[in-house]
Design a protein that fits this description.
about 1000 residues; mainly beta; five-stranded antiparallel beta sheet; five-stranded mixed beta sheet
C-alpha cells in the first residue's frame, strides 16, 4: 500500500471512530431543523410534567421587608442567574441551582448546577420543577474529580402560546465548548430537551412573528473554529441556519423597536460598546455606543440592556475603568431611528470612588423608565461593605433620586436583578446571600413588589406584671415608590384591646420615602387586677390612603404568669488540668424567679474517660437567692494536650421543667512531656562481617505530639537506623531498627559499644541506652600442598610449598608431623615453622611454608611415600607425597627413561630426533627442533652435521677432518660467521616455484570470490 493510500486509510478509520463516539454520546448535529421529537437529549419526563401542580401558599407580603424567598429555605446549595417571563396569566421564574433538595443527584451524590423553574399566580407559588435533563452525566478527567456537568443562564421566551426555555450546558472537559439547550412548555407538559448550538449566554425576543435568538459561540457549519455572535430565527416549524451578527467578542442583548418594526442587538467588550440593527432580512452596519479610549484591563459590560421609551432607544451598561478612579459606573445613552444620533452619556450612579456598580437593567412601566442595578462598596482595596440593589425612574424629563431596594445590611450581597411587570405591579427579582432574607447562608433567589408598606416587631411575645407596662418596638417600612413623601401617608391603629388594658402608639401618622424605615413604640399596660392567666393579643394595623390601598398588621401577645427563672454562672470557666489529675470549679446557682424553687443539677457532654462530680445535685432556693456548688473534674491519664473539653452543667426547675439554665465549663489539658527509649536485648553476639539487628522502641509518654531525633555515639563499627526523626502522637510508640555491622576481620571476643540517644525536638527531654556487640570465635583453617607426586633420581633436591590460611578470627597454633616410613628422605622447612614444628597463625592470616626434599644417594630406584600431617583444633589435614625414584646411569640428574644419551653425562635430549643432541645443535647454531639440518654441510667440507657430531669435529670449520691429519680441538663458535645452509635455500626456491605454478588457480579462486 502506498503512503498516500495508507494515510487515506488512517483518516477514514479516524472519521468512522469519531462518528461512532458522537453516536454513543447521543448528541445531535447542530443546526438541523428542530422538530418536536428530533435531537432529543432525554426522554419525556415521567412525572411533574405539569409545572403548576402541588401548589403551596405564598407568604404574606408582610414578611421580612416583604421580600419573598422563591428558592427553598435551606443552606445546602446555591441558586443563581434568574430569568422571568409572564405566560398564561402567571409569572414564571427560572434559575440555576445546585441545591440537592431541588435538583437531581449526580452519580457521586455531588450537587451540580441544574435549571429549575416555578410559577406564581399572584397568591400561590407552584412546586419547583427541574427543567434541565435528569441525567447522571459522569465524566472523569484531570480537571474534575467528581464528574458533574453544570447548566447556567436560563432565558425564558413566550412564542405562539408556548413558553420556551434556553440555557447553557457547560461540560467539564477543558477542550469541549459549552452547549445551548432548549425545551418548550405548552401549559401541560414540557417537550424533550434539544441541543440548540455551541455557545454561551444569549438573549431571545419575538420579532416579525418569529422567535429570534442571538448568542456568542462557535460557527458550526462554515468554520467550526470561528467564534462570534450568531443569530437564528424560528417560525414555529423549523429554525434557520445560524448567521453571524459580528465576529467581536460579546454576549448580545436583543430588543424590538415596535415603532419602526426593527430588531436591535447590542453588546460590550474590552474595546468598545456596539449595536446593530436587523430589518428582518439583513443585519445593517453596526454603530458604536461608547468608544472612549481605555487603559489596559478596562472593559465595558458584557451584559448591556436595551429598552424603548418615548420613541427612543435607551441603552444602559456598566463601564468598568479602574478601582482607583470610578469603578463600575452605570451609563445610559438614547437615540432615535433612523439617524442614530446618540445623546450624551448619562451617569446614573453617584459619582463616588468607593462604589462598584454593575448588572444594570431597564424596563418601561406605567409611562416611566425604571433602571435598576447592584452596587458594591469598595474600601481599603477590598469590596467589603456588601452589595445592595438600587433603582431610579425617569418620567421623560428628569431622573428621580436613587432608592435602595434591598435591606441596608453590611456584608450581605445582592446582585443580578431582573425587572418584570406582572398583574399591574412591578416586581424585582435578584440573588442574595443575606440570611435574614432567605433563612440560609447560601445564594438564593428572592422577589419583591415595588409598591406597599411593611410592619415588623422585634419581639411580639412579652410578659408583664399587674399594673406595669411593657414596650414593643415596631418598624414601619415603605416599599412603594412615591413621587414625594406626601404621596405616601400611612396611618397606624391598634385593635383587639382587652378590657382594662391600655395600648398607646408613639405615632399614628407618618410619611415615608422609598425603603425608609422608622421605629414606633407601642406601650401596653396591664390592669392592676389582672389575673395570672390573663393575656392581651393586641394588633397594630397600617393603612395607606392612596389609589393602591395596602394594609398590613401585626399582633403582640402579652402574658401574665408566675415567673420561674433559673440562672447558672461559673466564676472561673477556663482552667488547665494535668492528665490523671483534678480541678475544682465554683458554680453559682441563682433563683431569679418570683417563687420558691427546687433546682436539680446535672452534668452532660462529659467526654469519655473524664469524670465529673457535683457536691450537690439538688438545692432549694428562695426568690432572688444564690447558692454555690462545686464541680470536681478529673482528666484521664491519656488526656491529650491542647484538647479543650466543654462540660455542660444544667440547672432545671422541678416546679417548671421548661425553666432551665446551663453553664458551659471549659478545661484545657496542660502540656506534659515525657519519653522512654527501650530495647528488649541490648547486648548480642555476632560473627565478623555480620549485621546485628536491635529492636528499639521509643514511646512518647507525653500528652502532645512530639518530634523525636535519634542519634548514635561512641560506636566504632558501622551503625544505621531506619528512622532518625520520628513524629509521635501522644502515648504513641514507634519501633526503631538499629543495624550494627561488625568488620569482616573482627577479632574474636572483641566488642563494640555505643549509646543510642532519643531527644525531643520540642523540648530538652532525652533518653538513652547502651548497645554492646561481642564477636564470636570463628574456626576456619584451610591448607594445601604444592607437590603430591614426584619423579626424580638419587642424590637430588626438590623444592615445594605448602599454603595454610586462617579464615577464623582467633589465634591458631598448628602442629606439623612428618611420617617418612624410615626411607631416609628428608624434609627441611623454612622460618615459618618453629623448631618444635609449630606453625603460628594470626586471625585472617595466610602463610606459605617453603620446604625442600632431599633424596639420598643410596636409595634404590622404586616408589616411596611420605605423610605430612597438620594438627589443628577442629580439623586435621593429612597430605601424602609419592616419590618415584628412577635409574640415572650417567648421573646427570636425568632419569634414563627420558635421557636420549643415558651414558653420556654431557647430553640428554634430542628434540627433533635427528641423532644430534639439543645442546650440541645449540652450541654450533643449528635448530634443535628441525631434523633437516642434520644433513646440512655448513663448512662445505663434504661432511654432514650428523657426521661431524659423530666424528667429534667442528661443523663450522672446514680445517678440521676426522682422518687424524689434524688433531681435533673443538674450536669456539664464530658468532659473526654468516652461513646459509644449501638445503634451506633449496626449500625456499621450491616453495616459490610451487606458489607461482598455483597462481592461476588462486587468481581464479579469488576472482570467483570477489566477483559479484
Amino acid at each position: 500500500m502506498s503512503e498516500y493510500g495508507f494515510n487515506r486509510l488512517l483518516i477514514s478509520v479516524y472519521i468512522i471512530f469519531a462518528l461512532f463516539i458522537i453516536n454513543i454520546n447521543g448528541m445531535p448535529i447542530f443546526g438541523q431543523v428542530l422538530e418536536p421529537n428530533s435531537n432529543e437529549v432525554t426522554t419525556k419526563i415521567e412525572n411533574d410534567d405539569n409545572l403548576d401542580n402541588d401548589t403551596k401558599p405564598m407568604a404574606s407580603r408582610a414578611t421580612i421587608d416583604t421580600i419573598t424567598e422563591i428558592t427553598l429555605p435551606t443552606d445546602s446549595g446555591d441558586d443563581k442567574y434568574v430569568s422571568m417571563k409572564t405566560y398564561n396569566n402567571k409569572l414564571y421564574v427560572a434559575w440555576s441551582s445546585n441545591d440537592p433538595g431541588i435538583t437531581s443527584p449526580t452519580a457521586l451524590d455531588e450537587p451540580d448546577y441544574d435549571i429549575v423553574i416555578r410559577s406564581f399566580d399572584g397568591q400561590n407559588w407552584s412546586a419547583i420543577f427541574e427543567l434541565s435533563p435528569k441525567l447522571i452525566e459522569t465524566k472523569f478527567n484531570s480537571g474534575d474529580a467528581v464528574g458533574t456537568e453544570d447548566d447556567y443562564f436560563p432565558n425564558l421566551i413566550v412564542y405562539k402560546n408556548k413558553l420556551y426555555a434556553f440555557w447553557v450546558h457547560s461540560p467539564w472537559e477543558k477542550d469541549e465548548p459549552s452547549i445551548i439547550r432548549m425545551r418548550s412548555y405548552d401549559g401541560v407538559q414540557w417537550s424533550n430537551v434539544i441541543n440548540f448550538s455551541y455557545g454561551g449566554k444569549g438573549d431571545g425576543v419575538v420579532y416579525n412573528n418569529k422567535l429570534c435568538y442571538g448568542w456568542y459561540g462557535k460557527h458550526q457549519y462554515e468554520n467550526p473554529q470561528m467564534w462570534g455572535m450568531f443569530f437564528r430565527e424560528f417560525d414555529g416549524i423549523e429554525w434557520t441556519d445560524a448567521q453571524l451578527i459580528d465576529s467581536e467578542y460579546g454576549m448580545p442583548t436583543l430588543e424590538v423597536d415596535n415603532t419602526n418594526n426593527l430588531l436591535f442587538a447590542c453588546w460590550g467588550n474590552s474595546e468598545n460598546f456596539s449595536a446593530k440593527i436587523y430589518d428582518g432580512n439583513i443585519w445593517k452596519d453596526k454603530f458604536i455606543v461608547d468608544d472612549q479610549k481605555r487603559q489596559t484591563g478596562d472593559y465595558d459590560s458584557y451584559h448591556p440592556n436595551l429598552s424603548f421609551f418615548n420613541n427612543k432607544g435607551h441603552i444602559i451598561w456598566s463601564d468598568f475603568i479602574s478601582p482607583t478612579t470610578l469603578p463600575g459606573m452605570i451609563k445610559l445613552r438614547n437615540f432615535r431611528y433612523p439617524n442614530i444620533n446618540l445623546s450624551k452619556i448619562i451617569q446614573l450612579n453617584r459619582t463616588r470612588e468607593d462604589q462598584y456598580n454593575s448588572n444594570p437593567k431597564l424596563i418601561n412601566f406605567k409611562n416611566k423608565l425604571f433602571a435598576g442595578w447592584d452596587c458594591r462598596i469598595y474600601q481599603s482595596g477590598v469590596y467589603n461593605i456588601g452589595r445592595e440593589i438600587l433603582i431610579r425612574s425617569f418620567d421623560g424629563n428628569n431622573w428621580d433620586d436613587i432608592k435602595q431596594i434591598s435591606p441596608n445590611r453590611n456584608y450581605s450581597f445582592n446582585s443580578h436583578i431582573q425587572l418584570i411587570e406582572f398583574k399591574n405591579t412591578l416586581y424585582i427579582v435578584w440573588q442574595t446571600n443575606d440570611s435574614t432574607i432567605s433563612n440560609s447562608n447560601d445564594w438564593d433567589i428572592v422577589i419583591r413588589p415595588l409598591f406597599g408598606s411593611f410592619l415588623k416587631c422585634e419581639d411580639t411575645d412579652k410578659t408583664v406584671e399587674p399594673g406595669k407596662s411593657v414596650i414593643y418596638v415596631i418598624s414601619v417600612s415603605n416599599i412603594a415608590i412615591p413621587k414625594s413623601k406626601s404621596d405616601y401617608n400611612l396611618k397606624l391603629e391598634t385593635s383587639n384591646i382587652p378590657h382594662g388594658w391600655i395600648a398607646k402608639l408613639e405615632k399614628s401618622e407618618i410619611n415615608l420615602d422609598l425603603s425608609e424605615t422608622i421605629k414606633v413604640k407601642l406601650t401596653i399596660t396591664a390592669p392592676f387586677d389582672a389575673t395570672i392567666d390573663q393575656w392581651a393579643n393586641i394588633s397594630v394595623i397600617c393603612r395607606q390612603k392612596d389609589i393602591m390601598v395596602i394594609e398590613d398588621s401585626i399582633e403582640t401577645n402579652t402574658y401574665m404568669d408566675v415567673k420561674f427563672d433559673v440562672d447558672l454562672t461559673c466564676r472561673e470557666k477556663n482552667k488547665y488540668i494535668i492528665p490523671d489529675n483534678s480541678v475544682s470549679y465554683e458554680i453559682e446557682v441563682k433563683n431569679k424567679g418570683n417563687v420558691n424553687d427546687s433546682i436539680k443539677l446535672s452534668i452532660s457532654k462529659l467526654p469519655p474517660f473524664w469524670t465529673g462530680k457535683l457536691n450537690s445535685n439538688l438545692i432549694n432556693l428562695q426568690p432572688k437567692s444564690i447558692n454555690i456548688i462545686f464541680l470536681n473534674l478529673t482528666a484521664p491519664a491519656n488526656a491529650t494536650y491542647g484538647v479543650q473539653v466543654s462540660i455542660n452543667i444544667l440547672g432545671e426547675s422541678l416546679q417548671n421543667p421548661s425553666c432551665k439554665s446551663n453553664v458551659i465549663i471549659k478545661s484545657m489539658v496542660e502540656l506534659i512531656r515525657k519519653m522512654i527509649l527501650f530495647c528488649n536485648k541490648s547486648e548480642k553476639n555476632a560473627n565478623p562481617g555480620e549485621e546485628t539487628i536491635y529492636i528499639l522502641r521509643v514511646t512518647n509518654q507525653g500528652n502532645a505530639p512530639d518530634l523525636i531525633n535519634l542519634s548514635t555515639s561512641e560506636f566504632k563499627w558501622n551503625i544505621s537506623l531506619n528512622y532518625k526523626n520520628v513524629t509521635l502522637y501522644p502515648f504513641e510508640s514507634r519501633e526503631i531498627r538499629l543495624k550494627h555491622k561488625a568488620p569482616n576481620i573482627a577479632i574474636a571476643n572483641t566488642t563494640d559499644q555505643g549509646v543510642i540517644t532519643a531527644k525531643s525536638l520540642q523540648s530538652n527531654i532525652t533518653d538513652s541506652l547502651k548497645i554492646i556487640t561481642v564477636i564470636n570465635q570463628i574456626y576456619n583453617i584451610s591448607a594445601s600442598i604444592g607437590l603430591k607426586y614426584v619423579k626424580t633420581v638419587q642424590n637430588s633436591t626438590i623444592n615445594s610449598t605448602m599454603n595454610i590460611s586462617n579464615y577464623g578470627n582467633g589465634y591458631e597454633v598448628i602442629t606439623l608431623l612428618i611420617n617418612n616410613f624410615s626411607y631416609n628422605i628428608k624434609l627441611n622447612f623454612n622460618h615459618n615453622v618453629t623448631k618444635d614444628f609449630k606453625i603460628n597463625l594470626n586471625p585472617f592470616e595466610k602463610k606459605q611454608i617453603d620446604f625442600s626434599i632431599i633424596i639420598p644417594k643410596d636409595i634404590q630406584p622404586d616408589e616411596y611415600k611420605i605423610e605430612i600431617i597438620l594438627l589443628t583444633k577442629i580439623k586435621n589435614f593429612t597430605f601424602k607425597m609419592y616419590f618415584d625414584i628412577l635409574l640415572d646411569s650417567d648421573n646427570d640428574k636425568i632419569p634414563d627413561g627420558i635421557d636420549v644419551f643415558p651414558n653420556n653425562p654431557l647430553y640428554a635430549f634430542d628434540s627433533d630426533y635427528d641423532g644430534i643432541p639439543d645442546a650440541w645443535e645449540v652450541q654450533y647454531g643449528l635448530d634443535p627442533f628441525n631434523f633437516t639440518d642434520s644433513h646440512s654441510d655448513w663448512d662445505n667440507d663434504r661432511m654432514t652435521s650428523l657426521e661431524e657430531f659423530i666424528s667429534g669435529t667442528d661443523p663450522t670449520n672446514p680445517d678440521y677432518y676426522p682422518n687424524g691429519s689434524y688433531p681435533y680441538y673443538p674450536p669456539e663458535k664464530d658468532k659473526d660467521k654468516n652461513t646459509f645452509p644449501i638445503l634451506f635455500q633449496f626449500y625456499i626456491i621450491l616453495t616459490i616455484i610451487i606458489i607461482l605454478s598455483l597462481t592461476p588457480i588462486f587468481a581464479k579462486g579469488l576472482s570467483s570470490i570477489f566477483t559479484p
